[in-house]
Amino acid sequence: MSAGAPLLELRDVRAGYGTLEVLHGVSLHVAAGEIVCVIGPNGAGKSTTFKAIMNLVDVRGGEIRFAGQSLVGVRPNLIPARGLVYVPQGRVVFATMTVRENLEMGAYLERDRRRVAAAMEHVFALFPVLAARQRQPAGSLSGGEQQMLAMGRALMLRPRLMLLDEPSLGLSPRLVDEVFDRIVALARAGLTLVLVEQNAARALAIADRGYVLELGRNRVEGSGRALLEDPEVRRLYLGG
Amino acid sequence: MSRADDVVLEVRDLRKAFGGVRAVDGCTFAVRRGTIAALIGPNGSGKTTTFDLITGLREPDAGVVLHRGENLVGLRPHQIFRRGITRTFQVTRVYREMTVLENMLSAAPLGVPGREARARAAALLALVDLTAFRGEYAGRLSYGQQKLLEFARALMPDPELLLLDEPAGGVNRTLLQHLLDHVHRLRAAGKTILLIEHDMTVVMAHCEWVVVMDHGATIAAGPPAAIREDPRVIEAYFGRRPAERGA
Fold it and tell me: Does A206 touch chain B (CB under 8 A)?
C-alpha cells in the first residue's frame, strides 16, 4: 500500500438480488497503480462484488468509495465518468457493429470528437489487432480479439481503474497468454486493475495483492505470491 | 480404432457453413466407448458447432454422425437426447425462470417415478455443491454455478455419451477436481465423455484421446502426449510450447 487514501475502498458491503443476499460484508481496498486479484469458489460473490461497485445489484449496507467519493446510489451509467470502468465476463461486445463503432460506444460520455479520436488512437496503440480489424463486425473477431475489444471499449473514457471479470474465460492457451500480456502492459501504463479470475494461479502471479472470498465474506488476503504459496489457499482454491 | 463395435460416436467429413463462413469444413473423428476424449482447437475453429451438429441443434450441410453405427443426421434434438446423448453449453442455457430443482427435473427421463427423479436430482446437486440453492431461480446463480447446474442436469438421464462444452470454464479449481473425479467414475461405469476444453491441464491429465480442430477441419488426433508435441498443433493452438508458457 502506498501512502494516502486508497483509490477504491469497500467497507463491510452487503448486496444481493431480490430475496437472495450474496455479499454478507465484503471489505477490500485498492491503491492507485496496483493489480489486485479476487478469487474464491463458485458463488463466493466475486462477480457480485463488481456489480455492487457498479450499482448493478441492490447494495443493502456498507460503504463503497472511489477516489474519495461514495459510489452508493450513483447510477451505473454515470460511474465511468468518474474514472471507474467495468468489463463483464463473457466478452460482451456489440456483435453486429464494427470494431470502430464498438469503441465509439465506449466513449458515450465524451462529446469532444478530438478527444474520442485521441482515445481511439491510444486503444489502437495498446491493441494493434483492433486497428487492423476496425471495419469488421465485432462478431467476426476471434474470442481473444473480442476480449481485447471489450477492454479497449472500456478504455475509451481514459479510466483510472478497470474492473475485469474473468478475462481468460473460454480462451485458448495462446489467447490467454495474449490477454495476460495486455493486462500487464496496461498496468505498466499506469492503469489500476482489479481482476476476478478462476485461472487463479495465473492471476495471482501478476497481482500485487489478492483477496479470497468465500460465501460472501472475506476469507484471506495477502500478496499475490503469499497466496500462491499458502498451502490452505492452494488446497481449497487452486486445486492442490 | 480397432473394432467397429468399440466406437460409440463417429463423425465423417462433417461440414456446415453460415453464409460465407465455413464453420465446420471436413471434421472426421471417432470416440471409443468408455473413454474420456477431448476436442480442442483455437477459438472459432468449429468445436461448438460440431457439438451442435452431433446433438441435432443444427443440421450439417454434408457428412454423417454415427452413434453406435446409426446415422443421427435428420433426428431432432429430443430424439438424440432419448438415445442417451446429453450435453452442456459454453454459454449456459439453464431455464432462468425455473428453480434449480425444476431445471434438474426437466431432464428426468420419461417414465421415471417422481420420487426417484427427486432423489437423483438431490444426489447430483450435492455433487456440484448446489444443494443450498435448489429452491433458487436458476437465473440468479452466478455464471460458474449455472455451468455446474448444467453439468448436473446433463447427468440426470444417466447418459451413455456426455458432451461437455468447456466444463472447466468459470469453475473453481477445487470443485473442478470433484467434477473430474465424477467423470472418471462415469467412465469406469462404461460411459463415454467428449469434452471441449481450453484448460490443457485438464486435457493432458484426464483425457485419453485428443482431437484437434483448426479452421473447421480436424488436423490431428491421438493420445495427449503425442498431441502436445505435434508441430501443427503447436503452431495452430499453443502458440508457444507449454514449457515456454510458464503456466
Answer: no
Sign of CA dihedral B184, B190, B196, B201: positive
Q: What is the chain A residue with the closest CA to B198?
A: A172
The secondary element (H helix, E strand) that includes residue A71 is: none
Question: Does the beta-carbon distance from B140 to A172 stay under 8 Å?
Answer: no
ipTM score of complex: 0.71
Asked if residue A138 belongs to a domain, the reply is: yes
Tell me, what DSSP letter sits at residue A110?
Answer: -
Residue of A nearest to B233 (CA): A174
Looking at the structure of chain A, the number of domains it has is 1
For the whole model, what pTM was predicted? 0.81
Residue B192 CA to residue B115 CA, distance in Å, equals 27
Q: Which domain holds residue A165?
A: 8-237
Q: Which residue of B has its CA nearest to A140?
A: B44
Mean pLDDT, chain B cut into blocks of 10 residues (247 residues total): 74 92 94 96 91 96 96 95 92 90 92 92 93 91 89 94 92 87 93 94 95 95 94 83 46
Region B1-78+195-247: CATH code: 3.40.50.300
A3 found inside a domain? no
Q: Do B133 and A236 touch (CB under 8 A)?
A: no
Question: Shortest CB distance from B238 goes to which of A169, A174, A202?
Answer: A174
